[in-house]
Amino acid sequence: MSFRKRNIGLSAGVDRASALNSTAQPQQAAAAPETNPGIRPSPDDGRPTTSTGSRSLDNLLAGHGGLPIGKTLLIEENGTTDFAGALLRYYAAEGVVQDQKVHVVGMPEQWGRSLPGLIGPADVADEKPAKRKGERMKIAWRYERLGEFGAGVAGSRGKP
């Protein structure tokens, strides 16, 4: 016997039988092209969604691959961790990266400067390759003459 999970919205004014019949019919996504940056259709039902800035949280949100537009996410913390604050910073940073307007109320200006950003390519970050080639490691100076690990060990052995 197998069971299927049904996502049924709860409301006060609709009786249960009509809610089951209305959700049993397939919903069709709007064919209008997305014009807002950072908004994509949900892989589950085609609803417009946006990323929360955390890929693992996006995957947990009912298969939508993000937070559906017009929905709210409330996170309650146990203890003294700042997990909700970290998620808020990731969500705001995702909006900045997607060129959306981000409104922050009640936070100091420094909060906006501490948002995570994009990481550039690795070759751009390493701007001093010529200087590093000239430097030698003083700690491992005696290993310099050994060459590659395992490179001549098998060939140098004579056959008995």
Automatic annotation (TrEMBL):
It is found in: Cytoplasm; Nucleus. Residues 24-33 have a biased composition (Low complexity). Transmembrane segments: none annotated. Residues 18-61 are annotated as: Disordered. GO terms for biological process: tRNA wobble uridine modification. Signal peptide: none annotated. Pathway: tRNA modification; 5-methoxycarbonylmethyl-2-thiouridine-tRNA biosynthesis. The keyword Cytoplasm applies. Its main location: cytoplasm. The keyword tRNA processing applies. Belongs to the ELP4 family. This is Elongator complex protein 4.
